[in-house]
Fold:
Amino acid sequence: MKNYEFITLEGIEGVGKSTAIQVVKRILEEKGRDVVITREPGGTAIGEKVRDILLSTQNNEMSPVSELFLLLAARAQHLAEVVSPALASGKCVVCDRFFDATFAYQGAGRGLDISIIKSATDLISPFFIPTLTLLLDAPVEVGFQRIKNRGHTDRFEEQNRVFFERIRASYLNRARLEPKRFCVIDASQSLGEVSNSIELILQDKFDS
Ligand code: Z5A
Structure:
């Protein structure tokens, strides 16, 4: 089997990452891999507390730089406590969002200087580069429609459509710049079609 142990899922809100991660897990387990699924921000007790702070609509006064460093603090803990030990023991780690989200949300979304994000990201995770990133891409409206029945919004979801358009464009640009790492999936397709696309990609990336 080829060396594809660290897989990340990315995309704007509501495109189906949490749903797709279960599909990835199932396919990898069918291939005999020991799979850890996790998410950012979160994945650890400390990280989940930081996640609550980041998502709470009570914290609307949070500055973009505070947001960046809270995300990175959660990531440092996540790498130390979950990702690093799992990879070291030969497990396959599948993570709902990772550093591409930081460039897309805090860079393109919040407008922070990309060089600051890169320095800060490199400081905590220079060696953790996903071997495969599945970018679930769909028009912003599709994501909005899919989450609108939840009955609540978090601090990010309260942002307007233009914010998410910038994020989507940033993700697509990152995928264009790193075609070997990224696979872009049309997430506006049905669940069955998205699952088939994931299956084909993993089939191609892994020895059968
Ligand atoms: N964030 C950041 O700013 N910087 C960073 O570095 C990191 C994160 C790591 C985390 O929120 C927030 O953190 C995120 C960015 C920020 N905020 N935003 N926006 P989150 O993890 O809670 O939010 P999310 O990542 O946007 O996840 P989500 O809203 O739960 O969406 P999703 O996981 O992509 O979608 P889903 O829950 O799988 O699906 C949504 C619904 O659509 C659900 O009812 C599904 O059954 C349905 N669905 C899924 N796929 C389909 C298809 N193909 N057809 C039809 N219906 C579907």
